């Protein structure tokens, strides 16, 4: 049997915080426990928000925490061609459609709907689902808009993908870090509606690049925070549509802020760099995150 492969996959669009420290430490520990490898992946598809300074900060913070990773590091911005090939396959199979509605148009459709007293469906993160309108456009109308230069994203036709799969979808989730027990979790990608697989200004998306990379890098164990638990449904469906293997997952607890909410990159006082500069030690960080 080949060694398990873990990965820590931060985005360099802000300083790492205590939540990232917990994630990286958990990955490292589980990799060590299983004699596995730990990869570091830089998720920098959003070239307007990601910077080399934040990327350098990731290496500095991890080294400070005493966390080792394998070289070379995969940087997503260097692999757009691989994500495009996956998108082409989804296009060929009729599983994606061009979505032209702007944020304002979506908002207007929702306001109109809710004015009649009915709630618009929302995804597990609370964002409204994309209206199905564009799915029923004729090929002729689609081509007309594309030729006219209308901006659009590619969205997954989730219903079509599930119909093509033709059987229930699930993922395996470890019960805890000991990797002894796992359970099968029913996946429900419909709760996300038709997700974006390639953005207007970026030829891929978070979901598409994650599943392509996990497969290319041979990742067998995806260990990340509970905030991405429900996203697994979408990623499993994409794996099935692209013929990619399914890793086993473990979604660890989140480090919460003093207000009981999930930490964000804008909460400066929990940033690893800030803590270090204030004299905190790596051992102190481990205590803070209970790791
Ligand atoms: N890049 C994502 C983040 O920064 C994590 C992706 C993943 O672990 O699947 O939250």
Describe the structure.
The protein is α/β, with parallel strands linked by helices and 291 residues long. The protein folds into two domains: 1-78 and 255-291, 3-Layer(aba) Sandwich (Rossmann fold); 80-212, Glutamyl-tRNA Synthetase, domain 3 (Alpha-Beta Complex), CATH 3.90.800.10. Helix content is 37%, strand content 16%. The protein has ten helices and ten strands. A three-stranded parallel β-sheet has the order 1-2-3. Strand 9 (221-225), helix 8 and strand 10 (248-252) form a beta-alpha-beta unit. Helix 6 (158-165) crosses helix 8 (231-242) and helix 7 (206-216) crosses helix 8. Glutamic acid binds next to loops. Glutamic acid is lined by residues 9-11, 43, 210, 224, 228.
Quick synopsis:
With 291 residues, the protein is α/β, with parallel strands linked by helices.
């Amino acid at each position: 049997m080949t060694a398990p492969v873990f990965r820590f996959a931060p985005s360099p669009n802000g300083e790492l915080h205590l939540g990232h420290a917990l994630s990286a430490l958990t990955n490292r520990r589980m990799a060590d426990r299983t004699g596995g490898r730990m990869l570091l992946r830089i998720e920098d598809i959003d070239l307007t928000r990601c910077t080399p300074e934040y990327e350098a900060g990731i290496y500095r913070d991890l080294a400070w925490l005493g966390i080792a990773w394998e070289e070379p590091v995969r940087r997503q911005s260097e692999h757009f061609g691989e994500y495009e090939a996956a998108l082409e396959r989804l296009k060929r199979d009729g599983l994606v459609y061009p979505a032209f509605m702007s944020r304002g148009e979506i908002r207007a459709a929702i306001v109109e709907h809710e004015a009649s007293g009915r709630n618009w469906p929302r995804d597990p993160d609370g964002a409204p689902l994309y209206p199905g309108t564009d799915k029923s456009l004729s090929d002729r109308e689609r081509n007309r808009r594309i030729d006219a230069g209308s901006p659009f994203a590619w969205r997954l036709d989730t219903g079509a993908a599930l119909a093509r799969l033709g059987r229930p979808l699930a993922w395996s989730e470890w019960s805890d870090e000991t990797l002894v027990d796992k359970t099968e979790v029913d996946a429900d990608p419909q709760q996300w509606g038709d997700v974006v697989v390639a953005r207007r200004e970026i030829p891929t998306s978070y979901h598409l690049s994650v599943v392509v990379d996990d497969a290319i890098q041979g990742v067998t164990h995806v260990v990340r925070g509970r905030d991405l638990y429900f996203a697994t449904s979408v990623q499993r469906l994409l794996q099935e549509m692209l013929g990619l293997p399914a890793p086993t997952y473990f979604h660890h607890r989140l480090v919460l802020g003093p207000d009981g909410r999930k930490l964000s990159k804008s909460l400066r006082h929990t940033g690893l760099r800030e803590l270090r500069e204030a004299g905190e030690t790596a051992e102190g960080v481990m205590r803070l995150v209970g790791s």
